[in-house]
Design brief:
single chain; 399 residues; three-stranded mixed sheet; 22 helices; 65% helix; binds zinc ion
Length: 399
Amino acid sequence: MALLARSLRIVLAALLAIQPELVETARAQEAAAQAASLPVADEEAYKPVDKDERGLWMDTEEGERQLKASQQVIRDPALNAYVRKVLCNLVGPGKCASIRLYIVRTPDFNASMAVNGAMVVYSGLLLRTQNEAQLAAVLGHEYTHFAGHHGLRMFRQVKEKSAAAAWLAFTGIGLIASFSMAASLFSYSRDMEREADSGGLALMAAAGYDTREASKVWEQLRAEMDATAAVRNTKSRKDKNGGIFATHPPTAERVANLAQMATANPGVAGATGLDSYSAAMGHWWPVFFDDQLKRNDLGASDYLLAALAQQGWSPWLLYARGELYRRRALGNDIADAEKFYSQGIEAGGELPELWRGRGLARLKLERPEDGKTDLNEYLRRSPDAVDKAMIAMMAGETR
Ligand SMILES: [Zn+2]
């Protein structure tokens, strides 16, 4: 039974703390990670109370050590400081100080908080929440799971009840192969989800945000799923579990409950923190959107772009629009893409990728000299670009 409990803990710790691909990345750096020690929690931080919880905690700390060394963690101090500031607004400086925050570069919508106080925020979430209040809604939700010890409660329930989980633990199949199965077994219960929604909204209100933004997060996810389905000509999965929203289905019931709670506890009307959010994310959105494009989900990408362009087409949004059309490459897409990159450049865009995109589009449009000029301009503006060898080859010897 001890072995079973430990195996379950490892699966759960992996689920709560890290993505499967992060395990792979991190393993390569295990030696370095072992040297790293975790920060000491302050006196306000929660301590594990019994054997189950201590074991779960230890395995989670091991997961955190691996995560800490991962290349996918974004270390930009400004971005980290901003997300932490939002978190501290919600939970107060004392509790906030003991939380370790990891912003992970991956295009999925997700955030989680492990039982030991390690919070993980995916870049795909930062691309989807449209203002500070919406980000606060998700962080408050995850914090409520943590503060209510939902991870431990879930672990105990599974340990007592689930024969499937026992089998999973004993077969010794790797965590990665069994991850999707584990995800369905280890989803929080509906009661815990309701508790997290209501606790998160209360934190938002107390911190002075407009709580109507909480239900919008999930409404937007539903609209995005519709957009994915419309382009793929399939049925929307918005009322199903699974996919990238597996652990947090954006159900109509969730949207309705949150909207109702916001009526009862409105917070500060109009306090969405849109400007501070845009200022903090502006530098990163092109990177996050580029990752999103690689998911090859045209409907969702188009939807996200339109949502972000609600306040006008900034140079980077024009860049992103250009990328979307250039990669789709149907009908007049390449010519339209070339136009969007040009508009971005004319609007004073500094992003070197505007020239890369336009150069590649112009090569496709059989304007080789213009294309090469743009690619050389890209290399001049971005001399350390990861793709410089390939682009230099395409730019030819015209320099
Ligand atoms: Zn949740």
